[in-house]
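new request in #modeling-help
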Amino acid sequence: MRELLGQAWVVARKDLVLEFRTRTALLSAVVFTALVLTVFNFGRDPTAVATIDLAPSILWVTFTFAAMLALNRAFQLELENGALEGLLVSPLSRHSLFLGKLLANLGFVGVVEAVGLPLFVLFFNVSVGPVLLPLIGVIALATVGFVSVGTLFSAMVVRTRFAELMLPVLLLPFLLLPLTYAVQATARLLAGRPLSEVSGWLKLLAAYDLVFVAVATLLFPHTVDE
Amino acid sequence: MLSAEGLRHAYGRVVALDGVSLTLGPGQTLAIFGPNGAGKTTLLKVLAGLIRPQQGWARVAGGRRAIGWIGHQSHLYGHLSVLENLLFWAALYGVTSAQRGVRATAILERLGLSDRAGQPVWSLSRGLAQRAAIAKALVHDPHVLLLDEPFTGLDLAAAAQLRTLLGELRSAERVLVLATHNVDEGVELATDVAFQRQGRFVQLTPRGARGAAEIAEAYRQAMTDA
């Protein structure tokens, strides 16, 4: 287990160093997040639907599509100079490779969300101060779920044509559940409902995470082996 | 140290390996010559564990950790420096953190890349990148070295340097398998010579005292007869 996690960390650290050195996808995702929130901010009629009713959906749609940019690049960078082949020849276990990619993607999406959340507060004028911790909990749980599934699909499509198009087509149906849970939980938190009303959604998100991290880890070797 | 029996693999109707068997012990170097599409790369990929053969088996004493692989691509990350790449791969191959720097520095010096250690790989010329790829393959001191067209892109001096290095590895009881379509390359390193065509070894013999010209003539004859 120690070696598994140690190797995963080596892969994750390398990915994060590469990303923060090039900043290509990170910058794109952050700019994308800001633009989507801006478009939603000006593209809605505040007199028709209350902000508080719309805000949770907008937050999660934004995070989901921004995460796609991260997930698309996760294995693309392994195609450079055939690095993926090198990884597969090495003693690195496929499970470590998956966990490493998952960790790096979580770090990447976490940064995008850390930038996106204050922008969301700014644009939609919602008060998250009193519920910040539980809201971060919801974001963290939902992110683990959809990033784990996304990491698996990212590996699956990387050697196909139109990988960037294939990923959302394959991934979005699997995100319906965690997105529903996350939107429901976020809506209740922003509406100032008691935490007891949110705990059920949090449990569902945690269950989704457990199932899909396990399933994705188990299936991952079949997506990369020739 | 390295053995394979009855290897068979096809890509659809195209047979890449057809009943290939071999056994190599310490200090043996097998040079595999064959035209493009003969199945040399597939054989090396099977020996490296990158492809699971449809029939037969291949075994390397020490498993993946014991294998060094030089493929058609460098497996290096463009935005990491040469040294960072070597440290990353050394970590994946289980080299202790105390030894990584020592090994990486030594192999860079051996390949004349010391002054390029801090340079990002994307800025290297093709020949220098090939040398860095060789350094990457050797950084964990592998017992079995699989080389697919290793002289491609090297200038005369670098090719001579590589031949010397491979000769030293052979003397150090390493097993080398070298695949190339150019009979002039690597003949003097070989203890054994195989001619491969349409997935089959049409000849697998000790080199004996034969020189490059005799091997080239035998190769021409074998390809004509097959």
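bot summary: The interface with chain B takes residues 7, 10-11, 14, 17-18, 21-22, 77, 80-83, 85-92, 225-226 of chain A (CB under 8 Å).
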